[in-house]
Amino acid sequence: MDVDVAVKQGPGAGSAEVGDLIAGYLARLGVEFVFGIPGGAIEPFVNALARSERRGGPRCITSRHETGAAFMAEGYHSASGKLAVCFATTGPGATNLITGVASAFANHIPMLVITAQTPLDTFGRGAFQESSCTGINTLAMFEGITRYNSLVSHPDQVETKLAAAVLRAFEYPRGPVHLSVPMDVMRAEGARAHHLPRLERHLRAPDMVDETAVAELAQLLASSRSPVLVIGNRAAEAMPPILALAEARDIPLVVTPNGNGLVSVRHPLYRGVIGFAGHGSALKTLRDGRVDLVVAVGTSLGEWASNGWDELSLLNDRLVHVEASPHHFVASPMARLHVTGALATVFRQLLAGQQTRGGALRPVVDGAAEPVSHLVLEDPEGYLSDQSPILPQRLMGLLPELFPPQTRYLADTGNSFAWAIHYLHPRPDALPPGDAPRGGLFRTCLEFSSMGWAIGSAVGTALALPDTPVVCITGDGSYLMSGQEITVALAENLPVFYVILNDAGYGMVKHGQRQTGAEPLGYLLPPVDFAAMARAMGVDGHVIQSVDDLAALDIPALCRQRRPVLLDVRIDPEAKPPLEVRTNTLKGGRL
Question: Is the whole model's pTM more than 0.90, yes or no?
Answer without folding.
Answer: yes
